[in-house]
C-alpha cells in the first residue's frame, strides 16, 4: 500500500439501519439544531459550549465512523457504544463541574483525581476521533507535539524547555481555552458548523444544481465547455462547501467524465477539477472555516478579510480558465452539443432565487452582523427561497436530513480542529513559536524574500494530508509571528499562509484532492497532482505579489488597485500561454520562455519596485 495512502486513510462512513439508524439520525439532527441555538442565542460561557460541542460530536464520531477503512458498516459494535458513552460521560462531568472549573486558578489550584481521569479520557478520545476522521498522519503530528511537551525538558540546547508534568499539561489543555477547547474548536462549533449547515441546505434544495447549470449555460457552447463548467461550478460550490475533496467528489463526478468524453486527457481533466475545487476555499464570501479562524486569530473583521480576498481569488481562476481554453484550441475540441446546454433564461427562472441566500449573507456581513448571525440569516433565506417552488420545498424529513448530514460533514473538521487545539496549547506552553521563528531567521539570513519562500514551503509541508483549517492554524501559530517580525502586513501575511495551506490539498506527494479525483478520472493520483500544480500556478505566485503590493488586497487608491490588477492579470495570462505553448498556433521553446519571462516581470515588477523604493 502507498505509504501516503496509509498515513491518510480514514474510517469509513457507518450507516446504521433500522431503529438504531433512526435514533442516531434524530440525535444528529437535534445536535445540529442545538448547535444553531448555542452559537446564536445561548448565553452560556465559551468553555461550557465548546466542551458540550466536542463531547456530543465525539459521540457521533464513534457511532458513525468505523475504526478503519473497512469494518462493520450497518451495525454499531458494543465497543463503539462504550467509547460514545465515555465521551458523553466526560462532557457531563465537565458541565456539572462548570462553576468549579470557571472559578479555579490555572496551575495553582490542583486537579482532583476525577479531574485527571476525565481530562485524560477526553484527550485520548479526541486523538482517536482525529485518527478516524482525518487520518494517522495528523495523529502522529499531534503525538509528536505532546511528546515534546511532556519530555522536551530532557532536550539540551535552544529547543529544550522547563519540566511540564502531566497535571500541568492537562490543566492547560482541558481546563482552559488555550488547548483542546481553544480557538479552532470554538470556530468549528460556531461559524464553521453553521456555514456547513447553510451549504448543505442550499445543495439539498437545488442550489448546487443551479450553480452547475448556470456554468453550463454560460460556457457550454465555447471550446472545451465541460472544463470551463468545472472551473466555474467548482469555484461557486467550493465557496460554500469549504472542502476541496468534497467539492471534487460532488462536481467532479459530473465534469470529469464530460471532459474525458470531449477529448481531454484523464490527468488534465482530473487536474482541472482539483485546481478549481481547491480554489473554492479562497472565494468570498464564505471561504471555508479557515477564514473564520483567521478573523479570530488576527482580530481583523471578517468582512475586511472577504473583501481583501476578492481580487486574488479572481486572479487565481484566470490562468486556470485560460489554460483550459488554450488546451481546447490546441487539440481542436468543441463545445457541448446544444441539447446538453440548459438555456440561460430558463436556468435563471428555475434557480435564480438561489443567489438570494448568498446575497443575504453578503448583506449581513457588510452591515456589521457577526458571521454567526450571517449564517443563520443565510439558512433562513434558503428555507424561504425553497418554499417558493414545490420541487425545491423542504419537508421536515428533508430538514432533518440536512441537519444530520451537516453533522457528518463536521466530523473531520472537528477532529482536525481538536488536534490543532492540542498542538497550539503545546506550542504556547513550551514557547516553541519563538524558537521556531529564531530557526527561520537563521535559515533565511533575515532576508524577507527567502523567509517567505521558507514560510510557503513549511506551510505546504505542515498541511500535507490535513484539512485546510489545521494547516492554516499550524502555520499561523508557528510562522505568522516570524512574518510579523519581518514587517509583513498582518492581513497580507495571514492571507499568504491561507493560500499555501489551501494549496497543500493539491500539492504532491499527498495531494488528498487528487486522490479523490483519481478514482473518477481513472488516472494515477500523482500524475493528476503534478498537472494540478501546473494549472494552479497562480496560487503560488499571487501571494508573493500581494505581500509586496497591498493594492492587490484593496490597500490603496483606486488607480493603484486597477494598475496592479491589470499588470498581474496580464502576467498570469502570459504564464498560462507559456505553460500551454499555444496561442493562435503552437509556440516553440524560445517563445514560451519569452512569454514566461515577460509574464513574471509583469507580475512582480510593481511589487518588487514598491519593496525596494
TrEMBL record:
Keyword Transport tagged: yes
Example of a GO cellular component annotation carried by this entry: plasma membrane
Pfam families: DctM (PF06808)
Recorded superkingdom: Bacteria
Topology class, membrane: Multi-pass membrane protein
Keywords annotated in UniProt: Cell inner membrane, Cell membrane, Membrane, Transmembrane, Transmembrane helix, Transport
TM annotation in the entry: 23-41, 47-66, 78-96, 108-127, 134-151, 183-203, 267-293, 305-326, 347-366, 410-433, 439-464, 471-488, 494-516, 528-548, 560-578, 590-608
UniProt cross-references to InterPro entries, sorted A to Z: DctM, TRAP_DctM-Dct_fused
Gene Ontology molecular functions: transmembrane transporter activity
Signal peptide: none
Transmembrane helix recorded as keyword: yes
Domain TRAP C4-dicarboxylate transport system permease DctM subunit span(s) in chain numbering: 122-561
Subcellular location: Cell inner membrane
Chief location bin: membrane
Functional summary from the UniProt entry: Part of the tripartite ATP-independent periplasmic (TRAP) transport system.
Protein name: TRAP transporter fused permease subunit
Organism: Pikeienuella piscinae
